[in-house]
Amino acid sequence: xxxxxxxxxxxxxxxxxxxxxxxxxxxxxxxxxxxxxxxxxxxxxxxxxxxxxxxxxxxxxxxxxxxxxxxxxxxxxxxxxxxxxxxxxxxxxxxxxxxxxxxxxxxxxxxxxxxxxxxxxxxxxxxxxxxxxxxxxxxxxxxxxxxxxxxxxxxxxxxxxxxxxxxxxxxxxxxxxxxxxxxxxxxxxxxxxxxxxxxxxxxxxxxxxxxxxxxxxxxxxxxxxxxxxxxxxxxxxxxxxxxxxxxxxxxxxxxxxxxxxxxxxxxxxxxxxxxxxxxxxxxxxxxxxxxxxxxxxxxxxxxxxxxxxxxxxxxxxxxxxxxxxxxxxxxxxxxxxxxxxxxxxxxxxxxxxxxxxxxxxxxxxxxxxxxxxxxxxxxxxxxxxxxxxxxxxxxxxxxxxxxxx
Length: 405
Ligand SMILES: [Fe+2]
Description:
This protein has helices at residues 6-10, 13-20, 42-49, 89-97, 112-125, 181-184, 228-239, 256-274, 278-290, 300-307, 346-354, 372-384; strands at 26-28, 59-63, 66-67, 74-79, 82-87, 101-104, 129-136, 140-147, 151-158, 161-165, 177-178, 189-193, 198-201, 207-211, 216-223, 315-318, 323-329, 332-337, 340-345, 361-362, 388-390. It is of the alpha+beta class. The chain has three domains: 6-223, Sandwich (Jelly Rolls), CATH 2.60.120; 228-290, no CATH class; 300-402, Outer Surface Protein A, domain 3 (Alpha-Beta Complex). It starts with 5 loop residues before the first helix and ends in a 15-residue tail after the last strand. Residues 394-405 have low confidence and may be disordered. It binds fe (ii) ion (FE2). Fe (ii) ion binds at residues 143, 146, 148, 207.
């Protein structure tokens, strides 16, 4: 399956960051030509609409440039004793057939391929990113001229769509806004995007799009890089976590003592800021920007299923999962692994210690001088915890929950 780097979308990153990022639009024809198999497509959209219950907040339908009220494509379903609104797929298809554009927001919430698509963007820009899917029927004005408050990377996946993009204004209005064609003059980019083309539209940049002779599906990766104020807020928030800023002050009466106390804390904060290691803080801010809470991508069930297929002749090895060895007591050694604490025969602890570096052993011979079946059982148990793995088997182990690829 294709995985994508940030360069795949924007080309030379030095050129992108010095000339285009936050400044002017960028068109890259054929950037992902022939490499679309790993991306969400029309087929995935049908699969999503085939789910029994979809919360309507994911889907938006617009027609003639205006949003269709969600009541036109939802139905009420019983969920236990309660009632909830869910998508009515037939109504969505009907609105699409009659010229509506269907938008699926936060596609990365529900589709692994959309989650993978956002990764190069969160890594490169150290901020959150959301993937939105747009599907437009043939011969429709998808969206009339407007600007968005976030940066958008458009990837054309199916069909074609004609875009007009105007120059990024020097002074940008923050929120979303729409325009008449007369206000805008000549676009700086006018292009019919084909599958594999990528278009970058900085925030506040007017743009409009329309599908031509066929259905169009494009993905928009929306990113909102953090401004200085967000980064510095984060820095100060981390500094005031310290116990020195924990007490409840009483400032309300404005007495000299209260003012002096505040002045003292401001001075302390100033000192802490002055002593901050800027290089280390930059690293921390980047790491924080790349972190996203939510489900991991570890395929743990698939890993556990392969553990149960370990046989006596399977060659096994240690993984990178750390094991803390305790002291031996009564023939047993305590191990601490991935939040578990277990006592194993000393011979098992020794066998595990011996499996460092590139050494391997068969599952039957792992626990020496016991019957094969017992050795295999112990090997499987340790493999379930992620300490051992089959050679050539999946290398994903439980601690990978906390790591990025
Ligand atoms: Fe837009």
